[in-house]
């Protein structure tokens, strides 16, 4: 089949489903930081595939997107699974319940799934707690490792209006073994009842381990002794969610938490910790945090992407939370540590083996801010051009032509940003990078165009230029139009699955680009 042929690039129901599972919309627009709840109106392809008897195929896609880290947001996967679990076709329902534990990996996911099922059933006379759901939820608890389940139920006790107590009561759970029975009793009856039931019994080794762990959690919950709480955190790796609010006012408690806290979580709390004077200039806690952020082993383990660190740095530098209530004075040593980690984290960028051209439209000022972040569009554009794997080229363009720009792999973020903003402004023509690649016989898999212009303001449509490049280069070329300041408009109404628009920019945008490049959406 010809690469430029319309059949190859037409958007199928499966493509629309995959887009929905990836970012919650079947359309060709990804809007950064948009967290709205999905609905039946936005799931036409999903419903169509279910009506065609393709339920098993839908469930496989749900499982793939939720497991492989391909989904930007997990809400659409939970919604799709809930819809499959109450479809009229028995095999579809069975397939959905069979993968519940693989899709809903933690209690928060399970609570979301149950709530969506409840909302889908609203207005109907029948309830959601049929035999199949009761068994699936019971299996979710019974098939967990006992120690993992004990940690899960003490870290995430309730969400979305549901608690473990609710689910265990409604599913009529029959514990698979004594250790799970102990956890179920703890959740439904409380610690005192567990003590009374197990104190005089001859318990198995696994039950003793779970019993000891729950005792530690209870001890931490009721302790007013800072030293005792710190010792419990360090010895038993207790986490922030298992402590009281009072405990989290202590510098020493936070220092103990820093040692094992996931690096991404630590970066998220930097502003709050600085505002609450947990982190102060020159103090040992601040040094401990800086050491953790700069640790190459920790960066590798967390697989943190450079752009994630950039967003963390700019948000911390802002000195204020998005709600405006929490304010802090950014600590220079923390900013230096994040800057160091930014360059080190390029080792975490996984090559896709694709040929990219990143084109930056400098026809308008790059001094504005990416919506929903503290990052200037110039810095965002510079950082994206620095994430190199197999680039055919970086192409700044303006005034109807590509412009000369000296970028090299050893330049710092500040140097790349300065190089971009010094270029002259002018009129916009987003076909230029594609035409350049075609005329210079450079086969490109993905064109990424970064611009400050609204995505609907372009005079020239790039679709014809893209089709021409596909034909002449013999490549499965795709185009991502990224409007760094746009809020929800597409470049063109097209039925070509190789075109995608991104409005704004966040870490999810990178996942969307990766999925498009790898033919997953």
TrEMBL record:
Entries under PANTHER family matching the protein: 60 KDA RIBONUCLEOPROTEIN SSA/RO, RNA-BINDING PROTEIN RO60
Family, similarity comment: Belongs to the Ro 60 kDa family.
Official protein name in the record: TROVE domain-containing protein
Domain of life of the organism encoding this protein: Eukaryota
UniProt-listed InterPro entries: TROVE2, TROVE_dom, TROVE_dom_sf, vWA_Ro60, vWFA_dom_sf
Subcellular location: Cytoplasm
Keywords noted in UniProt: Cytoplasm, Metal-binding, Ribonucleoprotein, RNA-binding
């Amino acid at each position: 089949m010809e690469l430029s042929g319309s059949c190859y690039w037409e958007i199928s129901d499966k493509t629309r489903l995959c887009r929905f599972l990836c970012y919650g919309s079947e359309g060709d627009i990804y809007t950064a930081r948009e967290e709205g709840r999905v609905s039946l109106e936005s799931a036409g392809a999903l419903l169509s595939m279910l009506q065609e008897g393709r339920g098993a195929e839908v469930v496989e896609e749900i499982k793939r997107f939720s497991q492989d880290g391909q989904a930007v947001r997990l809400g659409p996967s939970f919604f799709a699974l809930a819809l499959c679990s109450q479809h009229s076709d028995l095999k579809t329902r069975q397939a959905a319940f069979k993968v519940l534990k693989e899709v809903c990996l933690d209690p928060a996911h399970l609570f979301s799934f149950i709530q969506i099922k409840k909302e889908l059933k609203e207005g109907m006379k029948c309830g959601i707690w049929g035999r199949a759901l009761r068994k699936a939820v019971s299996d979710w608890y019974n098939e967990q490792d006992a120690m993992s389940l004990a940690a899960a139920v003490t870290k995430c006790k309730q969400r979305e209006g549901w608690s473990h107590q609710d689910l265990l009561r409604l599913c009529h759970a029959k514990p698979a073994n004594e250790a799970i029975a102990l956890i179920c009793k703890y959740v439904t009856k409380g610690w005192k009842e567990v003590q009374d039931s197990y104190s005089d019994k001859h318990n198995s080794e696994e039950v003793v381990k779970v019993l000891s762990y729950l005792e530690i959690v209870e001890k931490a919950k009721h302790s007013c002794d800072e030293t005792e709480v710190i010792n419990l955190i360090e010895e038993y790796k207790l986490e922030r969610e298992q402590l009281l609010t009072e405990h989290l006012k202590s510098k020493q408690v936070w220092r103990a938490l820093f040692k094992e806290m996931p690096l991404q979580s630590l970066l998220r709390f930097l502003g709050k910790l600085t505002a609450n004077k947990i982190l102060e200039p020159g103090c040992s806690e601040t040094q401990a945090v800086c050491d953790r952020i700069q640790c190459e082993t920790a960066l590798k383990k967390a697989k943190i992407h450079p752009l994630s660190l950039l967003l963390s740095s700019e948000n911390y530098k802002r000195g204020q939370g998005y709600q405006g209530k929490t304010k802090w004075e950014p600590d220079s040593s923390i900013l230096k540590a994040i800057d160091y980690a930014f360059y080190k984290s390029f080792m975490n960028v996984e090559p896709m083996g694709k040929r990219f051209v990143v084109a930056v439209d400098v026809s308008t000022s790059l001094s504005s801010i990416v919506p929903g972040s503290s990052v200037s569009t110039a810095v965002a554009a510079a950082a994206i051009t620095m994430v190199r794997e197999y680039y055919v080229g970086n192409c700044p363009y303006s005034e109807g032509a590509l412009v000369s720009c000296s970028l090299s792999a050893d330049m710092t973020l500040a140097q790349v940003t300065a190089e971009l903003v010094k270029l002259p402004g002018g009129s916009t023509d987003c076909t230029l990078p594609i035409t350049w690649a075609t005329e210079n016989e450079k086969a490109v898999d993905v064109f990424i165009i970064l611009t400050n212009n609204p995505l609907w303001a372009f005079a020239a449509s790039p679709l014809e230029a893209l089709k021409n490049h596909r034909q002449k280069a013999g490549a499965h070329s795709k185009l991502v139009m990224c409007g760094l300041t746009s809020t929800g408009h597409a470049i063109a109404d097209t039925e070509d699955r190789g075109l995608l628009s991104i409005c704004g920019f966040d870490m999810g945008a990178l996942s969307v680009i990766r999925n498009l490049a790898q033919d997953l959406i």
